[in-house]
TrEMBL record:
Primary enzyme class: transferase
Organism: Brassica cretica
One Pfam family cited in the UniProt record for this chain: HisKA
Keyword Membrane: yes
Catalytically driven reaction(s): ATP + protein L-histidine = ADP + protein N-phospho-L-histidine
Annotated protein name in UniProt: histidine kinase
Hydrolase listed as a keyword: no
Lineage: Eukaryota, Viridiplantae, Streptophyta, Embryophyta, Tracheophyta
Gene3D superfamilies per the UniProt record, alphabetical: 1.10.287.130, Histidine kinase-like ATPase, C-terminal domain
Amino acid sequence: MIWCIATKNIRNNVDSLTEDIRSGLVSEIENIGRFIYPKTNSSTISLAGVVDSFITNNNNIHFTEIQTQIAPVLFHAYSTIPEVSQVSYISTDGLLFSYITGINTSFAVFANSSGGDYTWYTQTIDQKTGLLNGDATRSQPLDVTNTDWFHAAQRDHITSFVGTGLGGEDNERLFQTVVSLDSKKGVVSLGFPVKSFTSDLNRLNLRGGELYMWTKDGTVLVYESSLNASSFIPRDCSFGWVKETKGSKFEAYCSVLEVSGVPLTYTLMSPNKGIGTSISNAAMYMLIFMAIYACFWPLGFVVCMVRAARREMDLRSSLINQMEATQQAERKSMNKSQAFAQASHDIRGSLAGITGLIDLCRQEVKPGSDVDASLQQMNVCTKDLVGLLNSVLDMSKIESGKMLLEEEEFNLAKLLEDVVDFFHPMAMKKKVDVVLDLHDGSILKSSNVRGDSGKLKQILNNLVSNAVKFTVDGHISIRAWAQKPGPKSSVVLASEPKGSVSMFSKLMLCMSKDQSSSSAYENEISNSIRNNANTMEFVFEVDDTGKGIPVEM
């Protein structure tokens, strides 16, 4: 009884698994057909519209006009449309120009006359411009204006089919879409290689099955099969029929798939080899396995417990080693912090000595002289070094990821002049001018500002330093202006607000438990700051005539 129930369950599971595998394969096949050439019809129609615009006003079109006006349009489509391997224009009187992808190169096939001496020529092209180069060779012409697909395009405006290209001996089977021009002066066609589609199918894992695909006219696209493909083409496309060949039974699934506007019918053959016997054998094997498992499970339980104990011991050992490594890293970090603190004390002492010497030297020189100006610049650089040292050595701020901004009043115009004066000697050595452009003079009207002058100066120094580094000749312009904040301007509240409005904002944000309410209130505070008459937005630009910074930097 138990054996029968187990066998039935296994049969049901196998049937369900087989159906899932078949459904998955059908889905993969249809996705390949749907997405490999998704927009061929629209691309061909658009190309036909562009070509038609060149010849609508011409009663008689000559090959010279095709080569000079239409051929560049065809080459643009040939070089930009993905996966296309043939782009052609064929006039109603037989004139032809086509770009084709060959085995190792691209070439053009054209017919420059439609009279009694109707000849096709093949000639290589320039890969970048599409212009003909080399010598033209004669090729066997085809009477394309009398083909079924040419007449179908003239009659129905658009047609799609699978057929060989126009490449002579090197041609291959293509999915071709042909669109008639509105002026009825020819057709335009795009061809996409069938081998790209079949290559994607070849990568499918059919799990021992076979796949056959054919067109509505009976042209078979054979996919890696050792059997006779024609025997697997049913008269009507239906699911569930069984075919026996060479002693093997196959269950067939048939459906219709459209690729690049061409309707294709495919048959998916799944092997049907004694599933019932296989399921019975599998059930018997499972019963035997369960009996063996029931006999030996105590031994397995003991082995698993021993392995679990060993694994726990290994984990404890790894945890102890990790804790020791963490403690060692913390000691190293503490030693590093102490070393930084000692270095900070020594560096600050040296900088203080330099500052004192600069002050003594300024007392000995004439005010306003070049030496005095240089000493002032040295004093500014020393203060900048102290600011950089404070930023680098403040380990608690760096480790927490929060660098607080200092609010102080400073003269923005004076800060810009200090930046220009600092880089002026360095730029003069490279014969590069450093120019301060105050734009409309709005900076001078709003020069007294409040903010972190050190961070702003550090940012400007980095930008100008890069400009000096990568500029060989010419000039470097530092441009700045002030403007009222616009609706898209971002207003960032200070990390340690001192004003009453900011303190009230911080208090309310801390008391609020709803995230959306906090965000709305923060936006309200930002809007009130933006609308304040004393709030200005400053814009800084560093423009240079250099080659720029490489992408890898």
